[in-house]
Design brief:
Helix content: 25-40%
Low-confidence stretches: 1-10, 213-221
Distance between the termini: 46 Å
Number of helices: 7
Strand order of the largest sheet: 1-2-3-4-5-6
Oligomer: single chain
Radius of gyration: 19 Å
Number of strands: 11
Largest sheet: 6 strands, mixed
Length: 260
């Protein structure tokens, strides 16, 4: 995937600036933070990490060994990023913190390791999520192709009961892009146990508006209501050049619906 950042070396992504630098190698899951994390750096570093996570499926390892100061601020920043992506398809982060300035566990929700080797080993022990990704154009047929991908994924992952609600959700997510922002989009879905996680990334920072039940006379406005009905959780995360709208579906919810 081509990076939209300064590329001093092939495959290396840098976000340089006084304060904190974010350096990532496209060939691995490793991202290094170097320098000093000041409050003024937080939004820029957060955006760089979110972009990395949305462009590349799978967890990342964030190495803080190069930080000279600002470890506590970095810990709060990373906890916020992990919270933002915890329901995205196949997204997570692990932290390398040799100095021990970042709290882990219940305080931040972060998995923190004292060395890169230990974090990499933990990542290798994590089962790889089953992931499907597709680039879609904002055309009338985009939703149909998205439904086919979702149906195939649910069957392949042994959760066929989620195919129908997932198709409802993905239709609304894709059609929202086609109707309102008309930009290229990336569809990603992943299975995690008895759940399916869906996300559509587009190139507009225009946020969706959920206003609850729409009047019966309304010609639209029911898309997010449908997603809210079939999904356990859903939300939207802003990116520097767009947003991700995601949702999570549980087999338990679907079984309960049919049982009732």
């Amino acid at each position: 995937m081509t990076s939209r950042a300064d590329l001093p070396n092939p495959g290396t992504v840098r976000h340089p600036r006084a304060g904190c630098q974010v350096v990532a190698d496209d060939s691995s899951a490793l991202v290094r933070l170097a320098g000093t994390v000041e409050p003024a750096d937080v939004d820029r570093v957060r955006d760089a990490l979110l972009t990395r996570l949305v462009d590349r499926p799978g967890p990342i390892v964030v190495d803080l060994a190069g930080l000279r100061a600002g470890g506590a601020t970095a810990g709060q920043l990373l906890a916020g990023v992990r919270l933002a992506v915890r329901d995205w398809p196949a997204a997570d982060l692990l932290v390398v913190d040799p100095t021990g300035t970042v709290a882990d566990g219940d305080a931040t929700g972060l998995a923190v390791y004292p060395s890169e080797a230990e974090a990499t080993a933990a990542l290798a022990r994590t089962p790889m999520a089953a992931v499907l990704t597709e680039e879609l154009t904002p055309t009338v047929g985009a939703a149909r192709w998205a439904r086919e991908l979702v149906t195939d994924g649910c069957a392949r992952w042994g959760v066929p009961e989620l195919a129908e609600p997932a198709c409802i959700a993905v239709t609304e997510l894709v059609n929202n892009v086609v109707a309102h922002v008309s930009t290229p989009m990336t569809l990603r879905l992943a299975a995690q146990g008895d759940t399916v996680h869906l996300a559509v990334r587009d190139r507009s920072r225009r946020q969706p508006r959920y206003v609850g039940l729409a009047p019966l006379t309304s010609a639209g406005g029911r898309g997010l209501l449908l997603i809210d009905t079939v999904a356990r959780r859903w939300g939207s995360t802003l990116l520097p050049d767009g947003k991700v709208i995601w949702c999570v579906l549980h087999t338990e919810d679907e079984s309960h619906w049919h049982h009732d």
